């Protein structure tokens, strides 16, 4: 009695889009107000200037862009990078690499510091690179390179970049809200994230933390998009209840975001992060107890919001995920680009960051491997995941 | 006992965002699936290639872009217009004028054929202009220039442009779904609309009908955005269940759109249009019976999806709308740009295109005028609106 | 283009079931918890012992019965009335009369004090009746006899009954939440209401305020239902988070009720009542300006939560309402029993208690009358309703 | 990081109330129509006379009562049993026993055929009893005695009772929709179930299948409740679009039921039953592989919709469930009455009847036992559950 492709699955344990919190779904279903209705203008100001700002632990008012986080990343590249700039792109995975393509479009020279895609960037190497090229004006780093499930030390990198005087773009799309990271602690000038990962919303919005230095740079950049979907500048004052919107905000998604922020601030960020960390730890324990290998070179750089599992030799990774879905109704994410076919990702994001789901994921992964002819000890995996949850791992 | 600004109003009779259909709100609240989940891939194909295509009465498969319709318009300009192009922009209002700013960014020469903002474009004038400048490669027209509440004869304009051989961009954002217009009947090469007006969804998506000729032009344009939020090309095949998405689609909004299309196709387009037309007719009758003047120069060019009412001499239009909201909980739209302060707009879009709402709008507008010291005969307005509904107007 | 019977109407202006507040609908859609889940037990205690108690302005903890308010009324009769009792039933309408049928089932002798169904009970007459029959043990009165749209002076009646020493059952189903009435101010021993009228919930629950004296009487009554759907006693302690439920509570409806109470207490009872009163006043003004007659003999006894309009001679009342729905999508309530066919009721309850809806109702009623061949001045009606809203009535 | 009591749990695997299907929650959130609105009258007829009838595979039109299924059971007892009747109540558990209390209230003599609460009724014994007492007029049996997780052979019992000529009341509240049972195959005269178990709705409605013989008996019974919440007769014709409702139906719950029936009929009853059976089989395999004992004496009588697990010696069952919730966010049901404290129940009903949830339940139960000091092999349990799912058990 397999789950048919057209049936909704039982459990979506992906790295995004992730299942939304029930309260967020209800938030999306609020009546749609006119964007210039005073009630919506108050909502927008409250969401952005109060709730989102508190969630970001930010001094300045963040910016909401009305497209999924790749809009935020593309807009950051298009806005912060000037034609003559030398840009240093730190690459430890597919998403870090991908940002380089946008950066190249806008800068004079792109330098990349690249490590294997199961490794993390060394802040010392960044420092050396910056010393070698004092003309580097902008540095970009992906905090959680999701297709690898690895975390870069953005706090240390941020300190190095700030000492150098360059501006820093941090892609924290799939880490923010699931672990301890925020714009100021990593000295990001533009910090890009979204509600559709660890905050448990659907994809449709970008969240940007923009430092005062970055606002100054944007305003001084004649090529920074204006009157465009790609513009950050257009939205600088849009959060004010009496300021106009440059174009129509995504009313329903803003309502959903408010529900997500209420949950996040209500549960308490530290508790939310602990929930993510505990889920990931249980998942890693279970996966390894089945004899599988994590994709990250070391557990220390494994993400608390996604566990990337190396595909065993000879296994068709797409068939593996298809089996997990068809047999158990459990959905995982594939790799992307270079990691596609080489790893499977189990997401621990927002509503799915529940330790018990890690144990379930381990069993489903083990069962699906068995279906591919790879015998693993599902019982050992489950037991290890449970022991980790119970603090006995 | 006025309605406080922070309270939700009773009735949102705006020109967008409009109130969403209840079924659309429930659609938004569906569980959020992984975009590569087969169930979502099937949904996406069904929504775009079947339901949306049928709604657009289109031979080709339409394109969904994941930002509100200004994204579709900006993307159309950025993609279809080549650097050396001469572009003819037809301007009968603020939105038509606005498109020129985007067009100018991408073309060699921008020609504008402009009429007063309470008038409509004359197809004969378009023909003359095209004859005068055979090098015009792209023509752009706004079907319903919402800030004026006027309709341009796109069918006739389309015939003229097609005969000339230029490509045509039609902005039908606030008319499609509320009246008889579709890409092929007006020979549009890129037809831009959105679900957030007459289809009764929240704002967050653009719908594009792209002709074969336009696809060919896009592919031949080296400057057409690729790997960008502004790209149309990226999404050409994304509707196929087995094709990748260039980036993450707005899952919840797609679910909402499906609910809207089910309503639209279920009620029957002709019935939906009749509902819009009947509401607008009642509204015009009521407004005029109170001695007010429509903004459109002639009733023949007044939109069936929005009624623009000229602000009487000496009235503060913002205060007028504020009074309608505070006293009655009824929200109207202001003008935009040149029409701001000079007219008030009553929307008849999607769920608000109900004739009885027109009578209510007339009363609320009349009452709000009275509050501004302009005595109008509210009873006469109401009676005229009702008579129009009853076919006695 | 009439509204088809299978289509949802535009505006439900009935006396119940009424349209629910949007926030209530979202409350109903919360995940369904196990009734013995501690989170639900806390919810139940919070809703009943805190929020509902505050709404009822009650010293004791109210009781929730899990069926629409007729359950509460039947249970009150079955529980409070003892076999040997003489019961005085005050009858000013169909609902008051109906309660007598239940009372008769349980008592030794039923005395009825009846006035015409467009009148209200005179407290003096109650006093006289009680003096004449000192053996009367229980008195019952319907506060708002909905099928007549009339209000009885329960505060004065309560004082008389209390002085006499009998126990008082008050049916405040369709008045509580829409005007100033609560168990203690009318000295009710059992006060029955429901969330499905002025609180803006769907029908499925009964709310009972039970005085200490009534609890004592119930416990002393060997025939009071126990282990039954009709039991009040079963539920006495069910609100406590650690007490068992006698049977399964209606989880979703309790969640909906919580949303409704949050709205009611948040807006402020006095403001909510003013909204109801203002709507009814506008409705009465409009209806009378069209030359129609209210059903209540005097405006002083007309309900602020429903306006009953006498059906003009020769009009088929069912056809009248059908016309209002088919032409305008506006739904009214019929009379019931003796008032069926003789009046039409326009509800002002919860989300529909908005003054502008009164003006719309007047127009729709006027238009529907015209469709029945009765010419009324719709404009005069609309103007009078609007003037009343604007405080110029 | 335990789950706090006030936090929603992660997974509600109870025997009711159960989590509702997402589509049912959206159904509950539909606009609330007036019960006499033609659109609602059509809905009610469609739900009851078409969809529910098809789900029940019933020739006659079923009855909906507007309270959770204990209302249906109490109403069945009150309506079908006549004062002089001899009633045979078949008791294999707490719920069967409980029905006797109601039966006793209405009959002349109550005979009980009782087996231990981990056993099932033997149809041969029923036959013998009926032969011994030819005056037995009504027989009652609980199909799935939920507090025991055991199934009685109602088909065989029904044949015996029919041959005898008595009328049969079947309580199939927690089995219908999750396994192959319906009124006619078990020759039930009154078949009581509810949407709040295997159909995945919240609790608030009773569903009754009433045979022609039962209708005749009800009508002939002068004591059968009329004009009462306990009445079945009141509702006989209420499903007809043009018939009145005896009191107000629970509009939102009816909308939720329609969504549930659409899911049930859409997925296909046989597939739904297989999903339930597969989940239960996996659960039993896992539980037993951990060395735990099922409550039912034999696996053959274990319910496919709930697995009752005997509490190991010395374990505090309430603490066990509390640990499962606090540690893993997983909620189970306790026993009831005689089985309280002696077993834990894992529900497989509606949306929770997913095999993978069985494996998760096994782990959570195992982990919670460990927390109570009972070491079980969680890994073996998980592995056995997974093997059962994969058809290798």
UniProtKB/TrEMBL annotation, chains A, B, C, D:
Give the transmembrane ranges: none
**Key word Hydrolase present in the record?**
no
Show the InterPro entries listed in the entry: Aminotrans_V_dom, PyrdxlP-dep_Trfase, PyrdxlP-dep_Trfase_major, PyrdxlP-dep_Trfase_small, SP_NH2Trfase/AEP_transaminase
Nucleotide-binding as UniProt keyword: no
GO MF term set: pyridoxamine-pyruvate transaminase activity
Give the UniProt keywords, A-Z.
Aminotransferase, Pyridoxal phosphate, Transferase
Domain Aminotransferase class V, by residue range, is 103-335
Catalytic EC class: transferase
Cofactors (names): pyridoxal 5'-phosphate
Q: Which is one Pfam family of this protein?
A: Aminotran_5
Task: Give the EC number.
Answer: 2.6.1.30
Q: Which domain of life is it from?
A: Bacteria
- UniProt family annotation: Belongs to the class-V pyridoxal-phosphate-dependent aminotransferase family.
Official protein name in the record: Pyridoxamine--pyruvate transaminase
List the source organism.
Answer: Labrys wisconsinensis
